[in-house]
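Researcher: Good morning. I'm working through a list of sequences from a screen, and I'd like to move beyond sequence-only analysis. For each chain I'm collecting a predicted structure so we can compare shapes side by side. This is the next one on the list. No need for commentary yet; just the structure.
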Amino acid sequence: MTRLCRVLLLPLALAAMSGCASRQVAVAPPPPPVAWAPPPPSVAMPAGAHPGMIIPAARSDGSYPTPNQDLSPAASIWHLRAGLNFAALACRGPEEGVIIAGYNAMLNSQKAILAQAERSLAAEYRAAGGAAWRDSYDNAMTRLYNYYAQAPAKPALCATAERLLAEAAVVPSADFTIFAAARLPELDASFTDFYRAYDAWRNQRRSFWPDHRRRIEHRAAPAAPDRDRSRSLPAALAPAIHSPGNQGRNSMDHGMGQGTGRGQRNV
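Model: Good morning. Structure tokens for this chain:
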């Protein structure tokens, strides 16, 4: 190109650049700030519970397995006696004296039926376990007392034991087997009611967090890019936006800009 041509083209290039500088490029607005929504306080964690507790899994019918189910008549009597014995040993407070007196009264009034139940239960273990029946029996009783010793259910257990002991002392011995089978589920309810309350709290917590994350992701999502934005740009700038190198840089900048949004989604 001759010197004359370069001189003539220079003013035209300067004019084109001046026109590019005077144009304003439309920029998409930033995403709205992420708003924190606390979980609904509809179901409270039951007293004595803590996150991460291990409880029995509910059955398909909503019930919970316990050591006091599917028992023989002798086992029902002995398991009821064990629960009331634990209450007499562990319950403290205003009802302590009443529970201890009621337990001793039951031992006196139901002495014969309780002794017979113990012999019959031992015979059941002996028939099933052979020479090792005593170990099986002792292990089963240890698990039973550990079940009764669950601290979160203790207030309900003590209240139920006080009521049942008031009845047990005056039940005719001939009716005590029926009494034990009917009242053992009530003693169990001290524990299964706690399991159910804890599951309700835990299920609410689990159902809230996924929904909360979805709402945060929706609020934190960047505005959709303007597909016609390149049409308003000068021809000299449009190729730069769509070039592979700048696409990679824009993608990197976009990812860095969303760092805060990702952190908030994990709250």
